[in-house]
Amino acid sequence: MARSRARWEIVHDDLRSQIDQGKLKPGDRIPTEFDLAAQHGFSRATVRSAMARLEQDGLITGGAGSLGRQVRRRELVSWNLSRFELGAYADDPVNRVDQWEADAQAEGWATRQVVAGVAELAAPDDVARYLDCEGGSRLVRRRRLRYVARPGIPEQLAMIADTWTPVDIARMEIDGVAPLLQEANVVYPGGIYRALGFRQVRFQDEIQVRMPSPDEASLLNVQPGTPVGQHARVGIDVSGRRVRVLVSVFAGDRQKLRYDLDVPEQRPEPGEEE
Q1: Which tens digit of pLDDT belongs to each residue from 37-80?
Q2: Which of 31, 82, 145, 146 could anchor a disulfide with 259, C-beta 3.0 to 4.6 Å?
Q3: 216 neighbors 145 (Cβ within 8 angstroms)
Q4: Is 116 helix (H, G, I), strand (E, B) or coil?
Q5: Could you list the residue range(s) of the whole structural domain that residue 247 is in?
Q6: pLDDT tens digit string along 167-216?
Q7: Does residue 186 fall inside a structural domain?
Q8: What are phi and psi of 173, to 5 degrees?
Q9: How many domains in the chain?
Q10: Do the beta carbons of residue 162 and residue 142 sit within 8 Å?
Q11: Is residue 147 one of the residues assigned to a domain?
Q12: 113 and 175, same structural domain?
């Protein structure tokens, strides 16, 4: 026998149905708690529980009391990882636009990138695993915050991009400047590591979905209960050394990852894969 719905579920399901059917469109204002309570004959506390669940669903914006909420606009930033850092770089040293920004701009996004800090830190366990070093080893972390905006969509933080590098590489200089230690956007044709003399010949990617840390949740301003995606790309040079790992973290409801992969004519036999 089907269970009877809780009162908050009745309000939640009614509003969700209106959003799913397009009766409430992105940007439309949700009726106030007072109006919804009067409409359904429930208390404002019941309505508030329904609103909290719709926020967790990522369908409405946050709000307080009688201020109301809006249906969220959802336009995903597409990140083509099969092209990112491969082939000819699109870096623009004059305008200081790197490849990520160039790709986002090609999709119609306005971009802004901020270097939020450079620090020598003890390697977290996952970063140590990526770089094949002892946990707690000293590494340099260069944090970039990547913002996007579109007409009708206010600027939002799309991604936290942390590049972790062995200290000896991070301290290397070009014309008297260590680019990986600069707290400003630094762009070289072909990328910083190639300019430093490291030709990365292999990448290893790892993708996971997890709940954000308090710091990540605050920076990304995610709705309660929203997971984040994490993409880690390890760069390996011709000698086999792992010269860096780029760990990018993004709100799970704002980004989509794309891979375009060619299928070889002859696939390896079972057991031959690397």
Answers
A1: 999 998 999 988 988 888 877 788 776 555 568 887 777 788 88
A2: 82
A3: no
A4: strand
A5: 77-258
A6: 999 999 999 999 999 998 888 877 899 999 999 999 999 999 999 999 99
A7: yes
A8: -115, 155
A9: 2
A10: yes
A11: yes
A12: yes
